[in-house]
Write a structure and sequence with these properties.
two-stranded antiparallel sheet; 5 helices; mainly alpha
Length: 153
């Protein structure tokens, strides 16, 4: 766990040094994907993604999250990060990759909780599965974004 958190922290520090606005793009990719996967899954969800690990997740939710992450990321890059003159197709592809790897991070955290017989990783945030549920996608998505960023500029 220490190595995973170290990679996420290092990625966040690097992106913040580049620009807080760039770090925010990485965070937005994960947050938008996670939020819209939830809402898209609730509205359209039919096909279970990994029922033995996380029974509420659906492929339709994943698709909703990925599409939303792509759209928001392209709009953000075209406006807030316009000074970087980023290739918007590459930003869209990165958003797909970050959104998908954030789902993997979420599933890994869910699998870990199931392995130790826990429903929630804590009660600090009422109504949520704990702090780990708020950062599981970030610890997977931010290092990927940070690794890819130098190739985008």
């Amino acid at each position: 766990g220490v190595w995973i958190l170290w990679a996420a922290w290092t990625g966040m520090r690097y992106l913040h040094e580049v620009s807080p606005a760039v770090l925010l793009l990485a965070l937005l990719m994960v947050w938008i994907a996670d939020s819209m996967a939830y809402f898209g899954g609730k509205r359209f969800g039919q096909t279970k993604l990994a029922p033995s690990i996380s029974p509420g997740k659906t492929w339709e939710g994943v698709l909703s999250g990925v599409l939303a992450a792509v759209l928001v990321s392209i709009m953000y890059a075209a406006t807030v990060l316009a000074e970087y003159n980023l290739n918007l197709i590459m930003i869209g592809l990165l958003a797909v990759a970050v959104a998908l790897i954030s789902v993997v991070g979420d599933l890994n955290e869910s699998k870990l909780k199931r392995a130790v017989g826990m429903k929630d990783s804590g009660s600090l945030i009422p109504g949520h599965g704990g702090v780990l549920d708020r950062i599981d996608g970030l610890v997977a998505g931010v290092p990927l974004f940070a690794f890819c960023w130098p190739f985008l500029t």
